[in-house]
Amino acid sequence: MRQAKVVSISLPPDMQDEMAQIAKEERRSVSEVIREAFRQYLASRALATVRTKARKTAKRKGIKTSDVDTIIHESRRR
Q1: Does residue 2 lie within any of the structural domains?
Q2: Is 51 helix (H, G, I), strand (E, B) or coil?
Q3: What CA–CA distance (Å, rounded) separates 51 from 75?
Q4: DSSP string, 21-65
Q5: pTM for the predicted model, two decimal places
Q6: 47 is in which domain, residue-wise?
Q7: Are 24 and 14 in contact (CB under 8 A)?
Q8: What is the pLDDT of residue 50?
């Protein structure tokens, strides 16, 4: 069984109103809207981490932005 923890947050009134409206329109709870927003935030952070590592690797290997399409195309032919 999944156990949930209660977390309190502070929002400006206009943001709270908008969140409540979105929850109502989507027939979801405000908690679910916040959980989804946090999931998207985590995914965004993970993508940013991957991009940072890819840029460092590309720089170390001397790969330029203009080389990426060619590298992808060649790897798909294998």
Answers
A1: no
A2: helix
A3: 19
A4: HHHHHHT--HHHHHHHHHHHHHHHHHHHHHHHHHHHHHHHHT--G
A5: 0.73
A6: 13-76
A7: no
A8: 96
Contact 19, 30 (CB under 8 A): yes
Alpha carbons within 13 angstroms on the beta-carbon side of residue 52 total: 6
Say which amino acid occupies 21: Q
Mean pLDDT, the chain, whole residue set: 93
Residue 41 domain-assigned (yes or no): yes
pLDDT tops 90 at residue 11: yes
- DSSP letter, residue 62: T
pLDDT in the model for residue 77: 84
Domain count of the chain? 1
Each residue's pLDDT tens digit, 23-47: 999 999 999 999 999 999 999 999 9
Residue 63 contacts by C-beta under 8 Å, 6 or more apart in sequence? 57, 71
